[in-house]
Amino acid sequence: MNVHDTNLLAVQILGLSQVTAYPAFRILPTLRATVEGIPPATPALLEGVVVEFEVAGHTVCAAVTDADGIATCPLIAIILGPATYTASFAGNDRFFPSEDTAPFVP
Predict the structure, then answer these.
(1) Residue 3: per-residue pLDDT
(2) Structural domain contains residue 86
(3) CA distances from 26 to 22, 23, 30, 75 (A)
(4) In principle, which of 22, 34, 37, 66 could form an S-S bond with 15, CB 3.0–4.6 Å?
(5) Is 24 helix (H, G, I), strand (E, B) or coil?
(6) Angle at 18 between CA 95 and CA 40, to 5 degrees
(7) 87 phi and psi, to 5 degrees?
(8) Is 94 exposed, middle or buried (0-12, 13-18, 19+ CB in 10 A)?
(9) How many domains does the structure of the chain reveal?
(10) Span of 8-17, 53-62, 75-84 with lowest mean pLDDT
């Protein structure tokens, strides 16, 4: 990606909130993120882009956004101790990269 390219549009990752797991009840959370273009970007919600999810600095999955710009990642492992999780979009030929972080409470 050329950092001088003025045709790229900005996006933001929305919808991250604190996630709580309940391993004693075998309930593990699904991480969720929405990728949305910042006006004048169109479409407003980005379909078909890859969002990478990390918990405590470790990649746990990558998911493709659906028609509503939503990517989900069901966790299959227990995370010990409080941490943060991050959803990131690496950017592409039309959009700048973006990421957001929220608390993860096991």
Answers:
(1) 39
(2) yes
(3) 6, 4, 13, 11
(4) 34
(5) helix
(6) 25
(7) -115, 130
(8) middle
(9) 1
(10) 8-17
Report yes or no on 82 lying in a domain: yes
Amino acid at 44: A
For residues 22 and 51, the model is more confident at: 51
Whether the predicted pLDDT of 94 surpasses 90: no
3-state secondary structure the chain: CCCCCCCCECEEEECCCCEECEHHHCECCEEEEEEEECCCCCCCECCCCEEEEEECCEEEEEEECCCCCEEEEECCCCCCCCEEEEEEECCCCCECCEEEEEEEEC
Confidence band of 78 (pLDDT split at 50, 70, 90): low
Q: What is the CATH number of the domain that holds 35?
A: 2.60.40
* Residue 79 belongs to a domain: yes
